[in-house]
Amino acid sequence: MNSLLGKLARREQLREARGEPSDEAAQAARFALPARVPGTTGETLDFDSTNAPLGVRHTRQELERPLRCFGKVALAEALTADTRLLARLALDPALELLALKDALYLDTETSGLGGGTGNRAFLVGMCWFDSERGAFVLEQLLLRDLDDEAALLDRVRERVEAASFIVSYNGKSFDVPLLRTRMMLARLGPFPERPHLDLLHLARRVHARRGWRMSLGVVEKRVLGFERGPDIAGEEVAMRYAHYLWSGDEGCLAEVVTHNRYDVWSLVALLGYYGRAPESDAAFQSGIAVPELSAMARVLRRAGDLGWATRIADRAVALGPLDEPALLAEPSDDARDALWTRARIAKSSGDRAQAMADFTRLVARAEDAEARLELAKLYEHFCGELPLALELVALGTGESPADTERRRQRLIRKIERKRK
Question: Could you tell me what percentage of the chain is helix, strand and coil, using 3-state DSSP and rounding each to the nearest 5?
C-alpha cells in the first residue's frame, strides 16, 4: 500500500502546484462519495499477506462442512448433483462427464475504475472441494495495492488450471472476460480454457414464468430460501473501493468481503438445487413446482432429450390438472402451460395421439387459438379429418388473415377432391 499512497501523494503535490483540482475531489465527484462512507472504521481486514513471485498476495480462507445448509440446500448436494440434468439445462453436453468435486466456483467484485480495460477485479472469491479435508474451501483474494494485481491474477490462474470446470453467475459475460483481459494486460498468458456452467442461464430458463429479477440475491432468496440479512447494494461496491484507494481505510470494504463470500456459497448451493432430480417429491417440496417443471421440460426438448422431457412434462401435468372442476371456467396459467408443453413434446417425439389428446383438452377448456391451430394441423396431416380441421380454422387459429385464408382454401380443395 505504501507504493500506491506514495504515488498518489506525489500526484497531489503536482496538481496543487499547477492549481488543478485534486484527484480525490475529482473521484469523489465521479463516484458521488458521501462525506463519510458507511463502514469506515479504520479497521484492517483479516487477509494474510504473503510475498509471491509476482508481488504481494492478500488472501483469506475459510472451510465449510458439506452438511452446512444455505437455506433449503446443503452444500453436499453440489457433490451429488445430476450432471446429465445440469448439462441439459445448460444446453452444453460437455458438462455431463465432468467431476463435480473438481468444480471451481468463481465470483468477482470490480473497481469500475476507468471502464473497459481500466476495470479491475479487486476482490475475487473462489471455492472448491478439498477431498483430503472433506470440506469446501472458500478463498478470497484482495487487491490492496494495484501494483500487486499480477500476483492476484496468477493465483486465480492456478486455481482455474486445477479445476475441471468453472461455475459462476453471469461469469460467461462478465467475470471471465474481465479476468481474461486483465491477465493479457499483465502478460500472464491466456486465461485457462475450461468448460463453464453459468447458473444465470439456468435460472432464466428454469424460472422463465416467474417474472423475477434474475439477480443472484433475488434467486438466492426465492429459490434457496436463504436470507443474508443486511447486504451492500451492488452499486456501492466500486464506490467503496475508490474510497479505500484514496483513504487507505479498509473498514469500508468489510461489507463487500461479506457480500462476496455469500455470493460464492450461493453458487455451491444453487448448483445442488438445479441438479436435483425434477421428478422427485423432494424436488417439488423444495420449490421446483409446475412452472419450473414445464420450463425444464421445454429445455430438455431443446436439448434433444425427448424421453426425459416427456417424463417431466407428465409430472407437471399431474401436479397442475386442467380438468379440476374449479378450473373449468378459467384454467390456471400454470396448468395450461404444462399441458401445452407436453403436447409440443409429444408432437416432436412423434406421439401424435398424445399430442392430439392434449391439444383437444386445451381447446375444450380454454379459448386457445394456438392449440386450435396445432389441432387443425394434426387433423389435416395425421388423421385426415379435414372437416374437423376446417371447423377449427373457422373458429380462429391466431394466424394472419392471409395465412388463415390460404389454410381454409387448401382444406376446401382437399375436401372437394376427396368427395370426387
Answer: 60, 10, 30
Q: Which of 37, 71, 84, 106 is nearest to 273 (CA)?
A: 71
C-alpha cell at 221: 432468496
Residue whose entry in the numeric block shows the C-alpha cell 431443446: 302
Determine the 3-state secondary structure of 233 from DSSP.
coil
Q: Residues 73, 269: contact at Cβ < 8 Å?
A: yes
Helices (H) and strands (E) in the chain, counts: 18, 9
Q: What is the DSSP letter of 21?
A: P
Contact assessment for residue 21 and residue 231, using Cβ atoms and an 8 Å cutoff: no
- How far apart CA 287 and CA 155 sit, in angstroms, is 37
157/139 Cα distance (integer angstroms): 13
**397 CB neighbour count, 10 Å cutoff:** 22
Domain encompassing residue 130: 33-274
User: Helices in 53-195 by DSSP H: which ranges?
Assistant: 77-80, 83-90, 149-162, 176-185
Q: What are phi and psi of 211, to 5 degrees?
A: 75, 20
Domain boundary among 216, 242, 274: 274
Counting residues of the chain whose pLDDT is more than 70, the rounded percentage is 84
Q: Which three cell numbers stand for residue 9?
A: 501523494
* Neighbour-count burial for 107-126, b at 16+ CB within 10 Å, e otherwise: bbbbbbbeeeeebbbbbbbb
- Answer for the pair 224, 269: CB distance below 8 angstroms, yes or no: yes
Rg (CA), the chain: 28
Provide the CATH number for the domain around residue 37: 3.30.420.10
pTM of the model: 0.84
Q: Does residue 271 surpass a pLDDT of 80?
A: yes
Burial class (CB in 10 A: 0-12, 13-18, 19+), 272: buried
Give the closest residue to 37 by CA, choosing from 204, 183, 240, 222.
240
- The amino acid sitting at 302 is R
Burial of 301 (0-12, 13-18, 19+ CB in 10 A): buried
Structural contact between residues 354 and 343, judged by C-beta atoms closer than 8 angstroms = yes
Q: What is the CATH number of the domain that holds 399?
A: 1.25.40.10
Q: How many domains does the chain have?
A: 2
Rounded-to-integer distance, Cα 36 and Cα 272, Å:
41
Residue 3, number of CB atoms within 10 A of its CB: 11
Neighbours of 46 (CB within 10 A): 9
- Angstrom distance (rounded) from CA 120 to CA 114: 9
Q: Residues 339-395: pLDDT tens digits? A: 999 999 999 999 999 999 999 988 887 678 888 999 999 998 888 899 998 999 998
